[in-house]
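Dear colleagues,

As part of the handover before I leave the project, I'm documenting each prediction I ran so the next person doesn't have to rerun anything. This entry is a single chain, and its sequence is reproduced below.
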Amino acid sequence: QVRLEESGGRLVPAGDSLRLSCQASGRNFNQYTMGWLRQAPGKEREFVAALTKNGDNTFYDDSVKGRFAISRDNANNTLTWVYLQMNDLKFEDTALYHCAAYTRSSSIYNVRSYDWWGRGTQVIVSP
């Protein structure tokens, strides 16, 4: 059974750091580029970061460059961990954060390019 489960979100003051984790299991996610996407209250989902299967290439939205870092651990053929280290958090980073697999040939920055979304983990940054 395919399952993506995010964790690590909580309420933090601005300037703090958080590390989000995503456990992706049930299929060969080690063969997929994996991404983090988020949805703030009242806004559409947006791309945050992505990492190719071997970790060779990373992609970041301009709003998080230099503050966030994506990484992964391809534990085995049916279990992959994806992490998002978030530093210097800002109020505008408040959102529900999801991990998902990049499965389409469209832009990696397009949220519609992702499948198998997890339910998300809530990050709230107090100003």
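The mean pLDDT is 96. The longest strand covers residues 68-76.

All the best with the project,
I.
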